[in-house]
Structure formats: structure tokens, C-alpha cells
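As described in the Methods, two query proteins were run sequentially through the folding procedure within a single session, without resetting any intermediate state between them. The first query and its resulting C-alpha cells are shown here.
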Amino acid sequence: MSIHLHWYLPTNGDSRDIVGSGDDSHLAVGPSSSRIRPPTIEYLTEVARTAELLGFEAVLTPTGTWCEDAWITTAALSQATTRLKFLVAFRPGFISPTLAAHQAATFQRISGGRLLLNIVTGGDPVEQARFGDHLSHDERYRRTGEFLDVVRGVSTAPAGTAFDFDGQHYRISGARIDFGDWDPPQIFFGGASPAAEEVAARSVDTYLAWGETPAQIAERLQRLRARSTALGRTLQFGIRLHVISRDTSEQAWAHAERLLGAISEERIRSA
């Protein structure tokens, strides 16, 4: 089993505290003024080049109105790096799947095949409402499934042929990408609900989980492996962890307590 290590691209700014742990949520007011470093292109270039130098395969780039646009930022950074891949997060309900495939094709050509896609179905009502998206939770995941069907259909259609799709959320006629050779990027995706797991088992390459206990993760992976195998597919798995590195366990736990201590009781209750 091979292990792939990715880093994080702080397109919402960087600090020495937990992101969004100030008086207001980043979804409500945007990046906090207390951040040490704003997400300038110069700083993000420094992070990307350092991650590449240290041997990381890719960098995860977030999505939302609280950070810089992931497509545009990573396209710029692809010209300042040579090997590093970019795991671009975006919300499928806010863009045409044909356009997403077209953007992916262009990104692959200008970067030399260094694009990975992270599908974020969404879950925060404030963020969804900003884009005029008022579908229910399960409807959003059904739309995501159709979106991925179209993206894969357009991406893998033989040259010179068109792709049609007639679903509940998308009706696509004659979709095609008319120029250039490119390799469709791998698709990453996360979600813990039954609706999300159905999309993962059927439509994605790598399922992403948050850091949970080993028992919780083992149970979920076993369930998803069984579901994907029943569909004749093989899933890969990834996990996102925040790492605190210190010389001793005691020092690491002390720093963790300092981070947690900066979060107000009101924010904890709200979460």
C-alpha cells in the first residue's frame, strides 16, 4: 500500500491559532484581522514551493467566500512550481459540470497534469445561501452524483463525440471538449451521511475522512469498501489531520490546550 502525503494551502490567511476561533465565524465576516499572514500570492507561492521542496505530493486548497478562489489561485501557483499537485476544492452546485470539465482540461494542460479535484457538496446554510442554493441535504448529494456523472462522461468521451445526460438536476445535450489532449484528474470527496457514502461508493476515486478515532474510521472504511466492491469499484481513502509537533508528548498536549483555551465557551456551544 502506497501512502500519499499532502499539505494545506492557506488561501484564507495563516495564523498561530485555530482558524476561525475569534469572536466571529469566518462564514459570517470573512478572515479575521488577527491573522498573522494574509494570503498574498507571494506568501502562497512560498508555501507551495516549500511543500514541493519537502516532498509533499499535493496541497489541499479550500473553497468558500472566506478564502481566495481555489481555481484561479492554484492555476497561478502551478506556474511557480514544477512537480506539486493541487487538490482544488469547489462546490459542484455552483458551476456547470461541462464547464468544470473544460476548466479541468485547461488546468491539466497548463500545469502538466497536476490537478486533483475535491468535491465539496456543502453543508453550512450561511455559505449555501450566499450562492442562492437552498436544496436539502440529500438533494445536494443527489445533485453531486449527477454532476460527477456528467464530468466523467464529458471527460472520457472519445475525441470528436458528444455526451448527453438527462437527470433530475442536469439536462446536458451534446457536451464535448473540442481541443487538446488531457488526462481527467482524480476525484476526491468527503461526507459522513448515508447520502454522501452512496455518492462516494459510486462516483469518486478517493474518499476523504476527518480525523476520528481508529475504531470510527475502521467502521466507515469497511462499510465503504463493501459498498464500492458491490458496484465493481475500488475506492482509495484519505484522512485529514491537524498535526502538533513538539519534542515531547507533554509539550504537544500543552500546546493543544493553549489552542483550545483560545476558543470561547460561546463558540463551543454554537458549534
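Immediately afterward, the second query was submitted; its sequence and C-alpha cells are:
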Amino acid sequence: MTPTEVRPAHRAQALRLADALTDRLRDPDALPHAGHGTGSDERWKTASLASGHAGIALLFAQRALRVPQERHTAHRYVELAAASLRTQPAPHHGLLYEVAGLGFALHLTGHGVGYARALSALDARCGAAAAALARLVESVPLGPMARYDALDGLAGLGRYLLLRGLGPSADMEQLLKALVAMTATTGHRGREVPRYWSTTPPNWHPDADPELRASGHLNLGMGHGIAGPLAVLATAHLQGARVEGQSEAIGRLVALLERFRSEDEHGPYWPPTVSLPTYEGTASGRRRGRVAWCYGAPGISRALQLAGRALDRQDWAADAEASVAGLTRLPLEQFGMEHWSLCHGWAGVLHLLGYFTDGPSGPRIVELRERVAARIIDDFDTAGLPPLQLGHDRLGEGCHPAGFLEGAAGLALALDAYARPGEETLPWDTALLLN
């Protein structure tokens, strides 16, 4: 990341808020667990990179760069995650879950402290899981988005293998070939759709679009959609991990994003999903979705930016820049935010904007970033620090998540990155496929 060197306007307030959130998380024994489930189906929520101990470890590993004593707390959290993993008969392997998530946390936390054997075992498990998923998508043309997405699937596992220096491995090669193969089309309900088509809706909420329930959808987002595989294919290319057809696959994914990009008075944007009836139509008239990491700009924008860098396509980089520049004209009230999280909240926007401050729209993006930072700080100044709980859902009344993806640890990391441009940092946002 190449953040602006301009001193952030809200630096002092951001650091105070990050410190206060960190203080709430310093003692894992004092952190309440959401819900009361004790079965294996509940344990991932308190062990995973997304919502549990492994994700909170990232915060203390990052802070240990300046305060070495914080490394003890990071180690404590990864030990708790590892202990939980040992009790689970069927853990999730995805990057934001238990197996790859623990490996990610150990990689960032464990420099020089003897985690090599544990990491080797986790690498083998993640490689095997990636190879199994690759074989699945090769043999079954269509399925749910969890097969390939950033959280559960091939995109997240691929980024883990790259982080661990396993780009040249046979497992990574098989994974890349699968991501490439999925850009081909296959028949579905009388139409030809890319094999990235998800046969399930983006969620099972009772008010979900009936057409998405019946026929599935093409998901465009970074969290669950084609922007995630695009980011990983581009990053792999930049790191020299390449298979036949990879450049062409990058181009096909970019073409899909360009095909379904819309524009309003503020600028270009992407809807979250594309239904089967609209797949062969145009993007015109479809609503602007959430502005976030998981959906829309600036998450998709970063994937395009990486693709442009990988294949030296200045037009793709310009499209990415234009989509973020459009956000500077969009009122904050129309960002669709309901929370301050990394995944679908203000923290993710704050952090992602930092990847665009050196471009031609840099001054306007810096100003927007300051407005987002002020929005986060003002919200906490008004409401105060909420009670925090470990886990994902079934939170107590008035409580908020403590973890990385949707909680306080992720917000503290984003605030710290905003307030300390140009300072040493761990690649914690690799978990979001951002680099």
C-alpha cells in the first residue's frame, strides 16, 4: 500500500479510539462469548479469523511492531484459537475461518517463536482443501459461491497459499487452473452462464429476491463474488505464480465487471448481484448497492486496480479510479452503511480508500477519507464504546462483535492504518485480498 504522506486530520482521535478498543480486547478471559452454543457448529465463531480469537490476534501482532509486549497477547489469542481447532471434528478450511485463519494469524504473529511445525501442518491441510475444491469445481460445473469466494473458497485459500510462499506448489497450480476454468461458460436453465454462477442466493433471508432463490445469481462483490478470484489471479500473476490461460481469465473477469457496471449522477458503480433474467441484458437502471469491501466500490475497485497492475492495463486502472472518484460525489448517507465494520461498514471504506489517494483523484479521495474517519469517530463520541462479545451472531442486547471482519479488532486495525501512513505494518489486509 502507498498511502498519502499527508498527516491525517483526525489522527489523534483515531489513535485514541483504536487504543480504547484494543484495551477492551486485551484480556481474552474477560471477553464474553456471544450465545450459548457449545457444539462444533458454534466453535468456529470463537476460533476463526473472521469472528474469533485468530482475528483478534492480528490486532495485537500489528501493535507489537511498536509495543513489543503486545506480542504476548497475540500469542495468547492464537493459542486459544489452536486449542479450539483441536476440539473440532470438521472445521472450516477457508481463509476467514479456522484452519487457514489460524495459519494466517500464526504467520503474522509467529516470527521467530517456533510455529514452523504448526504452520507446516496447517499449510498441508489448506493445500489439500484447495486441491479438493479444485477437483470439485472441475467435475461439477456449477455450485454455491462458497466454492470460490474469499471467505470459504478457492480465492481465500489461494491468497493464503501465496502468503505462505506456496505459489510454486502443485496445490496452488491446481487452484489457479480451477479459477481459470471457471471463467468458461456452461448451460443453466436454458442460458449460457460463467461457471462462477452461484446456484444459491447471496443469502437465505425471508425477503430475498425470489428469482435469486430459483435460479441463482452472478455475484460481483469482493467478499463472495468474482472480484475475489480476480484479485487472487492478479496477485498470483504479480508474484510469478502463473498457469496457462491466467491472463485471459483475468481479462474475462474484468469484462464481466465492465459489462454489469452502471452509472448514475455520481459516477460508475456495480450492483451486488446479477439475476438470470438480467444476465443477457444490460446493467442500465439497476440499483446502486452497498459501498463496502464485500460489495461494490471500493472493494471491486481494488480488484480492478490489481488486475490493471498485473497485466499493465491502464484502462482498467482508470476504471477503478473512476469508480472511487464517484464515491467522492455520493453523500455519505447513501453509502448504505449500518455499521462500522471492515466487511460491510465504514472501517472497510476507510481502509480501502487509502489505496487510491495517490491517483489523479487523490485530493478528493483524501478528503472523503477524512469525512469517513470523522463519521466513525463521531459515532463513538456520541454513543460511547459498546460492550463487545466474541462470536458472530446471537449477540447480547446492545453488544457488538469483538472480532476482525465485522468487529472491534478490524476497526482498530483500520483506524491505526489511517492514523499512521507510511509506518511499518504487517500485511493484515491480505486477509481481505487487498494486496
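The chain has a mean pLDDT of 93. We note this only descriptively and draw no conclusion about the first query from it.
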